[in-house]
């Protein structure tokens, strides 16, 4: 299969299936920058089709942009992972090295208000204040890469640690503790065994408890500090504060790192688009938005119906799983002209990479900032950056319903 963004032939349909056969979800990407070719039949079922989950159940697949926006705001679709109809995390956790997410960010609106970080902290203005810190993180990591010399794995040397340290900075982790925080994050999310991940979580929670004690005497400027002030008013208890770093890492660390690595790979694969970026002919904000649309990480957004939903001439029954296939939603030709093409001049703000509605990703402004700073810093520091192996040898992660990324990205300069 050709790995070319501007070629409509990239969606090579699977062999004709039997009348009752369904497309399997999730599937791994054959080409990292493109949706799995096996999803091609779903385009013909837009905006609502059916897929087969890996546990043998069938589920609804939302592939149309307008319908996705409507259903993502529908309270009859829940993201409660404890619901028996939800696609269970254990179906994929063993393969990708994750061990489930804290319930703090997966409850429904009525239950989650005390758990989720307040929206005002992650506004564009507050995120802008973090940009100098994010720039220092990127510069430090790239200096380390430069000193070590090529080749380097851009995933482990840059994308993953930058994402972890960005979350640490958001929380208010002191600079001198960054190495510990990064190491603990790596073992928590990519530990080889459940025991290793559990040990890392315990270490992180113990550290966070000690950090909270320090901050009570020496307050700083971070999310933990803000929440501690609320905690003094009885809105949050210590146990929830202690588990917050693990929650944010579970929900935001690896997906952001995946995005940075996939974006770098895509730009290296398309030197004509990279040349425009390097020439400063287009704002980095526009580049980031178009890459968010095209790369569409994560693979899907998951929900479960808690009531019957009559929509698009179909009935989604209570208890049925619903998958929002973001890779197809963000390539809906009724919304995006020439959706297979990278277009830095495309109007921003229409993609659903961060979801929509009450559960739209709270960290979206921070993710945007990381992507812009990471790419700008990377290609400025290494103007001769290139893939160190043929593109066909770059391996994607195993099929995962909520994350798409690269196992590694060898580069040289």
Automatic annotation (TrEMBL):
<feature type="region of interest" description="Disordered">
    <location>
        <begin position="101"/>
        <end position="126"/>
    </location>
</feature>
<dbReference type="InterPro" id="IPR036396">
    <property type="entry name" value="Cyt_P450_sf"/>
</dbReference>
<dbReference type="InterPro" id="IPR017972">
    <property type="entry name" value="Cyt_P450_CS"/>
</dbReference>
<comment type="similarity">
    <text>Belongs to the cytochrome P450 family.</text>
</comment>
<keyword id="KW-0349">Heme</keyword>
<keyword id="KW-0560">Oxidoreductase</keyword>
<dbReference type="Pfam" id="PF00067">
    <property type="entry name" value="p450"/>
</dbReference>
<keyword id="KW-0408">Iron</keyword>
<keyword id="KW-0479">Metal-binding</keyword>
<keyword id="KW-0503">Monooxygenase</keyword>
<dbReference type="InterPro" id="IPR001128">
    <property type="entry name" value="Cyt_P450"/>
</dbReference>
<protein>
    <submittedName>
        <fullName>Cytochrome P450</fullName>
    </submittedName>
</protein>
<dbReference type="InterPro" id="IPR002397">
    <property type="entry name" value="Cyt_P450_B"/>
</dbReference>
């Amino acid at each position: 299969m050709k790995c070319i963004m501007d070629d409509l032939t990239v969606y090579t349909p699977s062999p004709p299936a039997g009348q009752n056969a369904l497309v399997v979800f999730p599937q791994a990407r054959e080409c990292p920058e493109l949706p799995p070719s096996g999803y091609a039949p779903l385009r013909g079922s837009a905006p609502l089709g059916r897929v087969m989950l890996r546990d043998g159940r069938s589920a609804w697949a939302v592939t149309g942009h307008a319908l996705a926006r409507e259903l993502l705001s529908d309270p009859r679709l829940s993201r409660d992972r404890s619901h028996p109809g939800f696609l269970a995390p254990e179906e994929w956790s063993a393969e990708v090295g994750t061990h489930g997410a804290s319930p703090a960010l997966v409850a429904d609106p009525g239950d989650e208000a005390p758990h989720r970080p307040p929206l005002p902290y992650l506004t564009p203005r507050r995120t802008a204040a973090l940009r100098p810190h994010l720039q220092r993180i990127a510069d430090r990591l790239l200096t380390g890469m430069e000193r070590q010399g090529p080749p380097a794995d851009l995933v482990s040397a840059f994308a993953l640690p930058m994402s972890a340290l960005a979350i640490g900075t958001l929380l208010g982790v002191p600079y001198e503790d960054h190495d510990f925080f990064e190491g603990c994050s790596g073992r928590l999310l990519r530990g080889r065994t459940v025991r290793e991940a559990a040990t890392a979580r315990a270490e992180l929670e113990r550290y966070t408890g000690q950090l909270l004690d320090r901050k009570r005497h020496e307050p700083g400027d971070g999310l933990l500090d803000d929440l501690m002030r609320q905690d003094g008013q009885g809105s949050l208890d210590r146990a929830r504060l202690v588990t917050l770093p693990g929650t944010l890492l579970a929900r935001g660390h690896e997906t952001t790192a995946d995005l940075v690595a996939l974006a770098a790979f895509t730009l290296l694969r398309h030197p004509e688009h990279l040349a425009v970026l390097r020439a400063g002919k287009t704002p980095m904000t526009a580049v980031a938005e178009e890459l968010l649309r095209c790369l569409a990480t994560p693979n899907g957004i998951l929900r479960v119906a808690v009531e019957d939903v009559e929509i698009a001439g179909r009935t989604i029954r209570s208890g049925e799983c619903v998958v929002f296939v973001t890779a197809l939603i963000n390539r809906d030709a009724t919304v995006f002209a020439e959706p297979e093409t990278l277009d830095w001049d495309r109007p921003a703000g229409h993609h659903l990479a961060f979801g929509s509605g009450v559960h739209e990703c709270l960290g979206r402004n921070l993710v945007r900032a990381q992507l812009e700073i990471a790419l700008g810093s990377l290609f400025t520091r290494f103007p001769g950056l290139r893939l160190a192996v043929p593109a066909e040898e770059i391996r994607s992660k195993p099929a995962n319903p909520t994350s798409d990324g690269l196992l590694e990205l060898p580069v040289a300069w």
